[in-house]
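From the shared-data thread, chain only:
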Amino acid sequence: MKKFLLLLATAAALLASGAEYKIANIKLTLANKKYQAAYDELKYHLELAAGKLAPGKDALEIIVGRAGDKAALQSGESRYLYKDGKLYIWGRDSSKGLIGTAFAVYGFLENKLGVRWIYAGKEGIHVPKQETISFKDGENYSRVSQFYWGFLRKSDFSNINKDARNPKAWHFSEEAGKLLTAEMAKFTRRHRHGRTLAIRYAHAFTKWPDRFEKTHMDYFGVSPYGKPGIPSFRKYAKLCLSNPAVIDQIIADWKAAGARKYLNVSPNDGTAGYCHCAKCMALDTRKEGENFYAHLTDRYLNFWNRVLKRAKEINPDVMLVTYVYSYYRHPPRREKIEYPDSMLCGLVPILAEDSEALFKAWKAVGMRHCFLRPNDTHPASTLLRGMEKRIFDKFQSVRRNFKLYGVDYDGTLGVRSRDLEHYIICRMIADPEKSFDELVDEYCSAFGAAKDMVKEFYTTARPAGEKMYFHSRSKNRKLLLDDSELESVIDKEYANVLSAGLKKLEAFPKDKLSAVEQWRLNRLILTIRQSLLTAEFIAQGDLAIAGKKNSFTNAAKALWDFRAAHAAELQENYGNIVYRSERKYWAIYQPYVDATSNSSVKLVDPAAGWRHSFDLPDMQGWRKRKAFKEITNAEASFDRYSIAAKPVPGKGEFVMFLPNVEVTPGAKYELSFDAKAPKGGDFTLRVANKSKTMKRIKVSAKGNSWSQGATTLNIPKNLEKITLYVAIGNAPEGGFIDNIVLKRLEK
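Structure, as tokens:
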């Protein structure tokens, strides 16, 4: 009896210090119309939880947009406070997009109702069953993001049916595409993506070619041929970092703009354009036998230190902003960051790297401040990868090692195979203290009684996906962007793991799930099925392209039919997926070609031209001959690999040839190639129609610079294919061939 009375007394004490309400018995009050969007979001989610709100006696009043106390708010802060029987929800808002009040609503929904947004759209909103909600007197919530900005970039699905690469059979309605685009914006906002500090960190010199091409070509990188140049894709232009006038111009532009605190000097994107002049090369710390692109960090860090020294003379509080990316993402070998508290580095590490080791090495040379700008979710593919743990670990490693200003994931939000990866990213931006397992459990909880089986699927698939990914990396060129590289290797283990998991999920009794939980499980099942069909399609496509025995037509038809049958359910951006990771395969499937033949964009037109720079490394169809030595990364004029030719001290020998090169009858072409021979050599690129020579390009090269040979070529009206031959002679120590380019100038 005493124990029972004690329990009653405890319960009474709890009630006295707070209150419990039925969710349906909530009265919503809008303090100001400018908070209408936050009010609408709250009402929408409460009605998902309880049905229609019907406030009556003793209703809980929630006031949206009115402060519950007089405390000053920090930038972007969101608050809610329960006092005197009312709940106040407010935050710091501004005309620049800070939505603190809405963020406070989302914090309330997460904390008090357990709401989770696992992907965009109504079906992605998980609201656990709950009839009541309780508060303690004075219950107080305050949130200020740990980061100045946090983003997962969204996709635009509103016009994907107009994409020439997306056949009509795979379309879903334009209205659904527009709705999905709007829902993705809501999805990222619900995860509290946004910014409280605007710092420009994009590629900084994309306009310099137009500004200075006619007046200051000395600003631009010297090409492998020994002269300053601007790449054909002009936004890839790089600077001559050893030229003092470049820094003078940067400082002059910055002063003209007001010498503000943040000075962006992020190098332009792309491989082309890096400076090969003697002074810039002297800034490198290249090891013997190392490729030009293997390590360019020291030249850039030396440059950044010099820019920063000049800028600090004008504004001591300046902070230099730059990407640490591409060929200059590796830790420096000689240089150190001379002003550690004045440099903000945008880290762009790849998934395949040991991020912890990379970050610690940069920390050792003075890096203190950074933002994370990965391309981890950039690939557009329907293949499940299982990279979510590596993405999470990289994020946490950055937090451990540096002051993290912000995160900006270049991504493909809306690609179904990335659902869990996207959720992990969104949640760790919103709540970086949560563990990986906590976030996975949150996601899987949305599958109701099937949650344990869904978690088992991801737990089993993850190591198989990682293993395949790293095998692909070791076998191929290790692209910087993590872009569509997974498709290079499809193995049986991966397919078997997915198939086994699929069977279990398909066998789960649907009567144990609610309607929306069934919908989510079905979406996952369709995603796995599409992943398996895509894997087989690519595997058979590779066999077909290699001229080996295959069943490509059957695999392509199976994937085509699946996408046509489930387009409305999956709502994928297939035009982008084809372009990013599948185009070479669909180009050899005639029904696809027929379905897109009237398009303004032709998927693959071999006769339009190509660039062969052997950078997978791969021969790209060229066949070896007597003077061929190897594909090497010791030298390259474009990217990281070239063809090494054997020593041929006398008369010329063939290095390689490329048969059956498709051309457009009657068209005009430009043909060029690069050659290098440190001890001298003569190179010839011969164009032939069967045994008849049509044209020869001859290049005599000697020394450490690359030489380029180029010509134009008129194709007879009855000719559809040519053959190319490369030869070398008078080369006592051999030589190198790279960057063979065929470009149609007119049809």
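DSSP finds 18 helices and 27 strands in the chain.
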